[in-house]
Amino acid sequence: MVTLQEAALLTGHDVKAIHSMMENRHIHYCYLKPETPSVCLRSLCLF
Fold this sequence. Notes:
Blueprint: E1 2-3, H1 4-11, H2 15-23, E2 29-33, E3 36-39, H3 41-46
Antiparallel strand pairs: 1-3, 2-3
Helix pairs in contact: 1-2
């Protein structure tokens, strides 16, 4: 699990695009901290 900023850095997408993928349920994510979503890097790499 990585933060939105880390996911953007690792994939070359911007944070807004990562957030859009989360909203459209294209990638898995959860809230490990109440205010910050964490993205499943494995699901992000498959997209």
